[in-house]
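FAQ: What does a multi-protein file look like?

Like this. Sequence, then tokens, then the next protein.
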Amino acid sequence: MSSSNRVSRRVGSIAPSATLAVTNKAKALRAAGEDVIGFGAGEPDFPTPEHIVEAAVAACKDPINHRYGPAGGLPELKEAIAAKTLRDSGFEVTPDQVVITNGGKHAVYNTMQVLLDAGDEVLVPAPYWTTYPEPIALAGAVTTVLPTDERTGFRVTIDQLDAAKTSRTKALLFVSPSNPSGAVYPKHEIEAIGQWAVENGIWIITDEIYEHLIYGDNEHHSMPTVVPEIADRCVVLNGVAKTYAMTGWRVGWLIAPADVAKAASTLQSHQTSNVAGVCQRAALAAVSGPLDDVYAMREAFDRRRKVMHSMLSAIPGVVCPEPQGAFYAYPSFKAVLGKEIGGQTPTTTLELADVLLEQAKVAIVPGEAFGTPGYARLSFALGDDDLGTGVQRIADILGG
């Protein structure tokens, strides 16, 4: 057997997660003694709130959590997520519409497997989270990229949607707040896009995992609440990772029409069975508990957001729109490409990222990973001192 067919074509074609690759490279350099500051990780730097940890400790001692549970999730957690969704989004759903998954990525994968057939097309505005195209491809479907930039606030328009739609278009992937751009769609644009989807019979897959990380006068609006008519063709993706600083607990969920949720649960029964019981009990404490810790984390992110935006904007040639949500800045480095930097001349943000890591000991994620070369994502979910030092290193090497 030749080496070319030892791995299946569909899996062999998957690109590794760029964000994890950058984070792992930075960790390896730190382990080797290098003073590296990493802006790659998409996770809060805070510990999981204590009341959630205590719920997990108690769950460890209860033998019921040592056994298999329902593939689609604990009934108590599904009920609590339905209540939380009504509380936070105004979207009324029933527990049978909720499927608990092994993190947000698993929710994305299950959704694509359940909704898409070979040849279907999914409209994906860029910049997009690096993972999205991969499960679409694994389902045999096609990603249709809709480019946006800072001039449009990194938001897609109805004209773009109309121009990209074909007879094979099955769904639109809609994300607000956005990873990586930090863009937040205003309510009237969400309404217009939702109505467009209704009129064209197109599914909406809306990722709301950053729903609580909104800054300034911006507001989060859930599309099925703004456009109730879309609810029967809408899948909402969410999880505890970002809101509650629980990235390592691996609990996400999808909310879908009951028949789609049932299909996702059936699929999961053959993939992973249930999410770990202890983690589900921790998630139950998170979604049914107070949001005080969430607001405290958001206040810290907001402070860091302002510092990062100000410092990046002061670097000659760097254009940095102010992040409206999530915990990322997404500046353009187009004007500095092609210029000598530390004895090298990067012509792409991939090359620039290598120069910054090698010479400034700063790790960023190049825009190529998100479908928009010329930009880069910098997370401000890291300590204030590291943030300031890291951006200053970028400014120093770029001549700012």
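And here is the next protein:
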Amino acid sequence: MDEKQTFIAEARRLQIVDATIKTLDEIGYIHASMAQIAKRAGISTALISYHFRDKNELMDDTLKKLVSDMNTYVLERTSATIGPHDKLRAYIEASIAYQAGRPSSNYALIEIVFHARTVDDVPYYKLDDDEEDPLESELQQILRMGQEQKEFGEFDVQVMASAIQGAIDEYAFNGKLKGSVDPHSYSKELVNMFNRAVRRDIS
């Protein structure tokens, strides 16, 4: 396959993945058949089958893109800041901003994680992922940096990172919360709350 054909194939695969995200957002994983995805992509189901072996492979690629897009968005913003406090603020704000700006991506990711299954019939959310999570690593690195530079106090980095990420993820999963608190206010509250939680007490 030459360079032009590769570009066309990648563009087509991206078109199909984007249509998959739209389909998951609109009708959910259970009803997201190849026919429904093809309809939203404006192509035939045969063309989807040419690029993806089956629904499982398509959902795997869609999940990878969703995670990759989120990672890139957040990591670009944390890397543009200097110092642990600014990096922690950027991490929280970028994570919430991404969720708020791409609600269809959030819904699609949730649908795949909670409804897709492996060939052994294991739900995705029950899988033990041995691969390093770039966002988890970044957050823990920020917290360790703060401790090493004596800007943050003493705490278990893994526990604190889990608490911060849990509070961020709550905004994606909790529809009632999103309906009553705007994303800017929520991220501002999280930044203030966790700044107090990690700060070093000067006695």
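Q: Is there any per-entry metadata?
A: Some entries carry free-text notes. For the entry above: The two ends are 67 Å apart (CA to CA).
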